[in-house]
Amino acid sequence: MKAIVFRQHGAPDVLEYTDAPDPTIRPNEVLVRVRACSLNHLDLWVRQGLPNVPIPLPRIPGSDVSGEITQIGAEVTTVRVGQKVVLIPGVTCGKCAACLSGQDNRCRQFTNLGYMIDGGCAEFVRAPEVNCLPYPENLSFEEAASIPLVFQTAWHMLVGRAELQPGDDVLILGAGSGVGSAAIQIAKFFGARVITTAGTGQKLQKAKELGADHLINHKTQKIREEVRRITNKRGVDVVFEHVGTATWEDSLASLAAGGRLITCGATTGYDAKIDLRFLFSRQLSLLGSYMGTKSELHTVMKLVALGRLKPVVDRVFPLAEAAAAHTYLESSSQFGKVVLMV
Ligand SMILES: [Zn+2]
């Protein structure tokens, strides 16, 4: 089969469009003919290499897959050959206490397609049967592949961890990112008031179309001052963080007393400081979040099929141009998802 393979970590030019062996499925797995695979920031990190995370090489990247099932293992009973499918990116053991309690994103063996195992930047990918989601028939393949990782991440952050309430004021950083554009929709769905940030007027306009109530241009305005003005000096109940060092101080300063800061990543750096006096006297909660559970993604897909949550596709590239797609995602000029068509 044709696939994107990297044999060493580095810049986008380590991604080769080449021939790779067809995957061989296990009895509990399905083989999927990939039609679309969307990119995530995770793809950039996996390609670049992560400190203290030895990723087996060569590797086929790609976590977010839509396509058709072409083969099923002997133990597979809930899906059939020929069925359209969207894959849950997270692969777990399915047997440990975390998995059995439905908190499979806390499984010690948790990984994603395209991370410690091969992913969907290829004509075929193998995945466990339990990773098959019902296909939302109202979506094209590129739209369907734009849902899983960012929506499950944003859902787990806002709903699973920050316990978003109707009427909460929420600051969502980076409206143009995949998780940002998903988070705006989820927060609005739960009846929150959304303040969001982006670096261009064009991105802010798109954020408004997704339902954001207040817009901050982080290049020309100070986030904490705008949040203070919008909330009558109170601050927000929830800050949705994934930017890291560049926004950390503004994020903390934007919290109301009793506010919750939830973070899933740090695209601009991992170093962050906090004044502990500020943390306890303001009774703040700092929450970490990692991916999401399979069950949460089933809920998300139900809402997508009903048209209540929508994929945001920015740009589509052919699989052979994966390196160009990575370069484009690294430039942060997108609004929503960058997708490879296979
Ligand atoms: Zn497990």
Which secondary structure elements does this structure contain, and how are they paired or packed?
Elements lengths: L1 E4 L10 E4 L9 E10 L2 H8 L15 E9 L11 E4 L2 E2 L5 H4 L10 E2 L11 E5 L3 E2 L7 H4 L3 H14 L7 E4 L5 H12 L3 E6 L2 H9 L4 E4 L5 H8 L5 E6 L3 H9 L1 E9 L12 H6 L3 E4 L5 H12 L7 E6 L3 H9 L6 E5 L1
Parallel strand pairs: 10-11, 10-13, 11-12, 13-14, 14-15, 16-17
Antiparallel strand pairs: 1-2, 3-4, 3-8, 3-17, 4-5, 5-9, 6-7
Bound molecules: zinc ion.
Zinc ion (ZN) binds next to helix 2.
Please characterize this protein's 3D structure:
With 342 residues, the chain is α/β, with parallel strands linked by helices. Helices cover 28% and strands 25% of the residues. The chain has eleven helices and 17 strands. The chain has helices at residues 41-48, 97-100, 141-144, 148-161, 178-189, 201-209, 223-230, 245-253, 276-281, 294-305, 322-330; strands spanning 2-5, 16-19, 29-38, 64-72, 84-87, 90-91, 111-112, 124-128, 132-133, 169-172, 193-198, 214-217, 236-241, 255-263, 285-288, 313-318, 337-341. The strands form four sheets. Strands 3, 4, 5, 8, 9, 16 and 17 form a seven-stranded mixed beta sheet that branches. Helix 5 links the parallel strand 10 (169-172) and strand 11 (193-198). The model has no long low-confidence stretch (mean pLDDT 97). Zinc ion is lined by residues 92-93, 95-96, 98-99, 107, 109.
